[in-house]
Amino acid sequence: MSRRIILSATTAVAVLGAAGAFALAQAGEQPPALKDSAVRYTAPAAGHDGSLSFTTQITAPSGLKSLKVLAWPKGAFADKPLTEKDMKNVESATCKPAGDDTLHCTYRVPVTATDAAEATEAGQDTWYVATLATGKNGDTVFADKSATFTTR
Predict the structure, then answer these.
(1) What is the spatial distance between Cα 30 and Cα 117, in angstroms, rounded to a whole number?
(2) For residue 142, which of 32, 27, 30, 29 has the smallest C-alpha distance?
(3) Residue 57 pairs with which residues in a beta bridge?
(4) Which residues contact 8 (CB under 8 A, 6 or more apart)?
(5) Cβ contact 97:103 at 8 Å
(6) 135 with 27: CB under 8 angstroms?
């Protein structure tokens, strides 16, 4: 084999190897991404608690450290918008693997008759679900309105 062919083949392998390593490094640096988010609100009735359930799929190439979830009524942050900092100490969703870099996350809380009555009396029938996803690499993605629901 001639030196020219060997040199060309070696250069091609090095370039392809470097491109592959770069692509893998870039994939690991991508922030978590939510998709297919859904919320379901069931009002309390006949002496039984209702519930609030939020589900989403998260793609997190670096892995997922946590998904914080907060349901909040329209108008609650009228004076000062909800921020990522506000989400640091709220409850987390439960996440289970659902593919290579994908997780299926669920957040579920009971809604008592007292909770529902207080929200209704305050005229708070439109609610939002805020999320803060934190990857294992430290990247965060915050959305103050990942989903919307009504309590009517």
Answers:
(1) 42
(2) 32
(3) 35, 104
(4) none
(5) yes
(6) no
Q: How many residues does the chain have?
A: 152
What distance lies between CA 143 and its chain's CA centroid? 8
- The position carrying tokens 């289970």 is 96
Output the six-digit token pair for 26: 């870039």
Q: DSSP letters along 14-42, please? A: HHHHHHHHHHHHHHHHSPPEEEEEEEEEE
Residue 72 bridge partners (DSSP): 128
Condensed to tens digits (0 to 9), the pLDDT of residues 36-68 reads: 999 999 999 998 999 999 999 999 999 999 999
Q: Are 131 and 144 in contact (CB under 8 A)?
A: no
Q: C-alpha angle 142/146/151, rounded to 5°? A: 135
This prediction has a pTM of 0.78
* CB-based contact 140:31 (threshold 8 Å): yes
Beta bridge mates, 131 = 69, 143
Give per-residue burial for 124-136: e unless 16+ CB within 10 Å, then b: beebbbbbbbbbe
| Whole-angstrom distance, CA of residue 147 vs CA of residue 40 | 10
